[in-house]
Amino acid sequence: MGQDQTKQQIEKGLQLYQSNQTEKALQVWTKVLEKSSDLMGRFRVLGCLVTAHSEMGRYKEMLKFAVVQIDTARELEDADFLLESYLNLARSNEKLCEFHKTISYCKTCLGLPGTRAGAQLGGQVSLSMGNAFLGLSVFQKALESFEKALRYAHNNDDAMLECRVCCSLGSFYAQVKDYEKALFFPCKAAELVNNYGKGWSLKYRAMSQYHMAVAYRLLGRLGSAMECCEESMKIALQHGDRPLQALCLLCFADIHRSRGDLELSQLKLHCLSESIYRSKGLQRELRAHVVRFHECVEETELYCGLCGESIGEKNSRLQALPCSHIFHLRWGLLGGWTGVGRISSGHSRAQLA
User: Fold this and answer.
1) So which residues are the signal peptide here (predicted)?
2) Do 271 and 242 share a domain, yes or no?
3) In whole angstroms, what separates CA 140 from the centre of its chain?
4) Residue 105 CA to chain centroid, in angstroms?
5) Same structural domain, 241 and 277
6) For the segment 9-61, what is each residue's pLDDT rounded down to a tens digit?
7) Per the count of CB atoms within 10 A, which of 11, 257, 290, 326 is most buried?
8) pLDDT for 232 beyond 60
9) Helix, strand, or coil here: 323?
10) Could you read off the pLDDT of 184-221 as tens digits, one per residue?
């Protein structure tokens, strides 16, 4: 496969990936890797594979391609490519929670001789190092790294990097329990997305909304937390971002636990898990969650006494009576108010949605 054909196939894979045809994109890029002899093309496609596997939560595969990319960079004998590949290796270890290795690879990046990419990637190196220090609860060094990354972003007018740093600062302040700042920085990230992110991936909006949801919950503003978390989950499901889906599930559970809706939080988790497994075609896991969902329905008496269908499994309009009985609204319109099913604690489908 020649240089021009390699470039065309890489672009084809990018178009498929951006249209959410992830598996087809991976197939195209894998073929390029198998057939192309163009080192620069191979380096670029390895970067695509690293990014794609990162967003799908396949961190071991991400690490595998990052290691191959370093070998390719060495063959190219180019300092810019070597810096980029070491950064991908640092990120891979960060995702795998190998934080000491992440810091070591980041230091390798910073120790490389001056390169053209240094000004652009230096901030990303500092961000990855800050995330690793935060993972190790070394808060002072984490903050120093985030502030350094923020300076890189400002000096280079890199709004995308600033957005990512603001999200990480949100996590930092949430951990040290300054909840006002934990909200301020994700809000700043969301503002950057609105002002500059027209051509960005929707993952930046999803990321800022998730961190806002966490901060709102910690501040006790549960309605705002739910709204932001739902927006983040919607984008994560649309783009197949499984790590973010998992974070949103945990956030949903925390919100319901803060409300005291312990049974409801369990139902919410099962509803969302079912939709994730269905979209991935994982039939065995899907069946297990469907069974568990209906067990929860029975345990909480979450069903309509007229039609016998469960309440909370899908979007539907409900009617509540003063006695806390709830039934599907279509039965109220057609058949009066008799024989309604009871729902524990008066929870409605609106709370599950």
Assistant:
1) none
2) no
3) 26
4) 24
5) no
6) 888 988 888 777 888 989 999 998 888 888 998 999 999 999 989 888 889 99
7) 326
8) yes
9) coil
10) 999 999 999 999 988 888 889 999 999 999 999 999 99
pLDDT at 148 over 50: yes
DSSP for 62-124 reads HHHHHHHHHHHHHHHT-HHHHHHHHHHHHHHHHHTT-HHHHHHHHHHHHHSPP-TTHHHHHHH
User: pLDDT value at position 202?
Assistant: 87
On whether the CB atoms of residues 272 and 249 are closer than 8 A, the answer is yes
Q: How many CA atoms lie within 13 A of 292 on its CB side?
A: 16
| pLDDT of 101 higher than 80 | yes
The model's pTM is: 0.71
* CA 93 to the chain's CA centroid: 17
Start-to-end C-alpha separation, the chain: 50
- Answer yes or no: do 283 and 207 share one domain: no
Q: Based on the domain organization, do 214 and 196 belong to the same domain?
A: yes
Q: Which two tokens stand for residue 76?
A: 């190219």
Does residue 334 carry a pLDDT above 50? no
- 299, 251: one domain: no
Tell me if 300 is assigned to some domain: yes
CB proximity list for 43: less than 8 A, separation 6 or greater: 69, 72, 73, 76, 81, 85
Whether 346 is in a domain gets the answer no
| Amino acid found at 232 | S
Range of the domain at 254: 158-260
Residue 325 DSSP code: B
212 and 274 fall within a common domain: no
Domain count, the chain: 2
Per the domain annotation, does 175 fall within a domain?
yes
For residue 345, what is the DSSP state?
Answer: G
- Say if 35 falls within a structural domain: no
User: CA angle at residue 306 from 300 to 309, to 5 degrees?
Assistant: 55
